[in-house]
């Protein structure tokens, strides 16, 4: 009953002094809300990265001119001096890699797609080998994919994203229709599955053509990325990676002991690097939000000290009626924890709202982690308890006679 009464008194105090309550809990609300928002957004980004990377399969690795993530300008300059990876490198790996279940190649740029009076800009133009659509985990929902013969003969056929179908072809049946990609005509043979938006950008504004036709239009001076599928993770993946490394070094005439002039990346290595970056960002953001919680805790302690002063006579009456020091201390601890917990609840609601607002406005992915809600509420309650100890102890140590003499 005392526990319920203490919570009731705390809530009545909040309701009786609304403005003071808002100002008191503001620090806790901001702190908890910041943590929830950051964790939700970072968790959403983690899910997005994992889905996009592992869409190829955990047993897929890439060979590229430079790593996917470059941490310094010196590294950038170093990688720019490397020879580009050519289609001949891909063909050599394709012919000689015995541990690879599949090998593909990708080259891309941005361009303009036109059909009649309709057009789109900043379209992702992809040059693919015939093996890339299944390796890319692309579901062709209408029509078909490329064939090796079309790749071999530089055929002007294309697979398109749903944005091209809706915005350029007017939503009509696209199969057999002609589109112009940077002025070059292609016949549509397939439509990829809709992927939606991410980070505010559409994932469906793309056109894929055979890489041989792509290079005939855009030239061969830019590097390609080679994709290889090992079949399974673990030792088979490691063996395939080492075999491809050996083949690439042989094809590119790297001397023994000389550093690779190309980069091999597995999905695990990239996801691991991303998790380190995201974890560091999350840690910094949580630390900054922690400052708000400390400020909020100090404000709660200050208000509780004011409350002790305002209720000195009440404390004297309770002690005169037989309340122990522990009873008085427990009452004020429960009140401070309740105050902070209420702030935590509003902080959780606000944090989720901010994260959803960012997702709606910018397309940044968000994914609510249930553990973060409980963690936020626990931390808020802990802050209330920690900063409520001193006011509660001060109330418990009051002399009942002195307290009863206090003026109302």
UniProtKB/TrEMBL annotation:
Any one cellular-component term (Gene Ontology): plasma membrane
Domain MacB-like periplasmic core: start-end pairs: 21-243
Compartments in which it is found: Cell membrane
Transmembrane domains' residue ranges: 21-42, 283-308, 329-356, 368-390
Gene Ontology MF: a single term: transmembrane transporter activity
Keywords from the UniProt entry: Cell membrane, Membrane, Transmembrane, Transmembrane helix
Domain ABC3 transporter permease C-terminal: 287-397
Membrane association type: Multi-pass membrane protein
Top-level taxonomic group: Bacteria
Family statement drawn from the similarity comment of this UniProt entry: Belongs to the ABC-4 integral membrane protein family.
PANTHER family: ABC TRANSPORTER PERMEASE YTRF, MEMBRANE COMPONENT OF TRANSPORTER-RELATED
Record's protein name: FtsX-like permease family protein
Source organism: Terriglobus albidus
């Amino acid at each position: 009953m005392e526990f319920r009464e203490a919570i009731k008194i705390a809530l009545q105090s909040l309701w009786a002094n609304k403005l003071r309550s808002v100002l008191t809990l503001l620090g806790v609300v901001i702190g908890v809300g910041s943590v929830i928002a950051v964790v939700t957004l970072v968790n959403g980004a983690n899910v997005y990265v994992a889905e996009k990377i592992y869409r190829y399969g955990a047993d897929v690795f890439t060979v590229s001119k430079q790593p996917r993530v470059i941490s310094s300008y010196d590294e950038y300059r170093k990688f720019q001096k490397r020879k580009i990876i050519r289609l001949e490198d891909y063909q050599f790996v394709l012919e000689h890699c015995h541990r690879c279940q599949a090998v593909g190649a990708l080259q891309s740029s941005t361009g303009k797609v036109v059909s009649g009076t309709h057009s789109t800009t900043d379209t992702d133009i992809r040059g693919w080998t015939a093996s890339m659509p299944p390796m890319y985990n692309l579901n062709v929902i209408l029509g078909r994919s490329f064939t090796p013969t079309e790749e071999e003969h530089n055929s002007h056929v294309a697979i398109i994203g749903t944005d091209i179908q809706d915005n350029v072809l007017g939503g009509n049946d696209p199969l057999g229709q002609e589109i112009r990609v940077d002025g070059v005509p292609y016949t549509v043979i397939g439509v990829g599955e809709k992927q939606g938006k991410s980070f505010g950008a559409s994932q469906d504004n793309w056109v894929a053509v055979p890489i041989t036709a792509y290079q005939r239009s855009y030239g061969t001076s830019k590097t390609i990325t080679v994709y290889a599928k090992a079949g399974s993770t673990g030792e088979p993946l490691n063996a395939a990676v080492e075999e491809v490394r050996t083949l690439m070094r042989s094809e590119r005439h790297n001397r023994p002991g000389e550093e690779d002039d190309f980069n091999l990346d597995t999905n695990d290595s990239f996801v691991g690097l991303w998790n380190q970056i995201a974890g560091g960002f999350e840690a910094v953001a949580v630390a900054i939000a922690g400052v708000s919680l400390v400020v909020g805790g100090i404000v709660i302690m200050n208000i509780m000290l004011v409350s002790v002063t305002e209720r000195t006579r009440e404390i004297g009456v309770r002690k005169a009626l037989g309340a122990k020091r522990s009873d008085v201390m427990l009452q004020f601890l429960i009140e401070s924890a309740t105050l902070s917990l209420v702030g935590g609840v509003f902080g959780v609601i606000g944090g989720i709202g901010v994260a959803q607002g960012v997702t709606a406005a910018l397309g940044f992915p968000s994914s609510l982690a249930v553990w973060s809600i409980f963690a936020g509420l626990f931390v808020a309650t802990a802050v209330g308890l920690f900063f409520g100890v001193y006011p509660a102890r001060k109330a418990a140590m009051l002399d009942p006679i002195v307290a009863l003499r206090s003026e109302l």
